[in-house]
Amino acid sequence: MAASVGFLGPLGTYSEEAALLYDPSADMPYPTITAVGEAVASGEVEEGVVPIENSLAGSVIFTLDLLISQPKLFIRGEIDLPIEHFLLTKPGTDPAEIKVIYSHPQALQQCRAYLEKNFPQAEQMASLSTVSSVQDAFASPVPAAAISPRRASELYDVYILDRGIQDVAANVTRFAVIGLSDHPPTGRDKTSVAFTFDVDTPGLLYKALGEFAQRGINLFKVESRPTKQSLGEYIFLVDCAGHREESPMKEALAALSQPISMLRILGSYPLWSPKGSP
Q1: How do residues 168-191 score in pLDDT, each as one tens digit?
Q2: Would residue 123 count as lying in a domain?
Q3: Structural domain of residue 197, as residue ranges?
Q4: Is the pLDDT at 34 greater than 60, yes or no?
Q5: Cα distance between residue 188 and residue 64, in whole Å
C-alpha cells in the first residue's frame, strides 16, 4: 500500500512543513526533488510535495524540469508557506571566524544581501537541503554556518546566531503537490500548462497568450525554460485562472493547437487557501 505524502527531505525542511500543512500524516522524506517525482511516478507514494516558486528567488528549475520531463506527473495542489531563515552554527563558533556558509541554493539566493553585508569574505556553498546544510557546516574543516529553518535548531545541538535573515520579510515559497492525476474542479482553480512552437516567427507567443486574453482568463505567471534540444528553443510555461475541464479555459486550451507543436497540461488544481480562510 502506498504511503500518503512524500516530500523533499530530510526531516525539518520547509518542504516537510508544507507537506504537514497539506496532510498531517506526511511521513516520507526523499533526498532530491527528482527522487520525490520518481516515488510518485512509481506509486511508492500517492502524492509528493516539492518547492516550485519563491517570491524572492523565482521558480525552482528542478521542479519545472521534472514536470516537463515526466508526463505521468501532474500538479494537483499548491501550498504557500511563509519562509523565515535562521543562521545556525556549531556551539562555540566565533562568528568573526566563519569562512563558509552552507544552505540550499534557493536559501542562499534569498539571503544574498544579508550575507554580502555581514559575511562578505565567507564562501557560499550549496547543500542538498536547508536542513542538511547543518550537517555540512558541522563537518566543515573550517568554521562554518548554515542557513536553515527554525526546526533545525530543535533537531541539532546548534547555536542560533541570527534569525529572519532573508532579504525581504515577506518571503513565501509556493509548493506543488504532485500526483498521477490533477484535481477535480472546485470553482476556484488554477491551471498550469507548458507548450512549444514548431517554428520561430514573430507574434507566435502573442497569438498564444491572446487565446487567454480574448476569453478574459487571468494569467498569474508566464516564463520559459530551454528545450535542451537546441540553443534558442524554449518551452513556455503559463499559470492561469480556471480549470481545464471548464469554460472558458477548456476552449482556450483547444484553441492553442495551432501553431503549437507541443501542449502539455501540467495540472489543474485549487488555488491555495490556508485552513480557516474563506
Answers
A1: 888 899 999 999 999 999 999 999
A2: yes
A3: 189-270
A4: yes
A5: 23
Confidence grade of residue 10 (pLDDT, cut at 50, 70, 90):
confident
Which of 179, 209, 244 finishes a domain?
A: 179
Do 193 and 234 lie in one domain? The reply is yes
**Residues whose CB is less than 8 angstroms from the CB of residue 216 and which lie 6 or more positions away in sequence, other chains included:** 248
Residue 173 annotated as catalytic: yes
Residue from 7, 119, 175, 212 carrying the catalytic annotation = 175
Catalytic residue among 173, 195, 212, 236: 173
Domain of 237, CATH number, reads 3.30.70.260
Which amino acid type is present at position 29? P
Task: Measure the CA angle with vertex 239, ends 234 and 240; round to 5°.
Answer: 130
Q: Are residues 99 and 31 in the same domain?
A: no
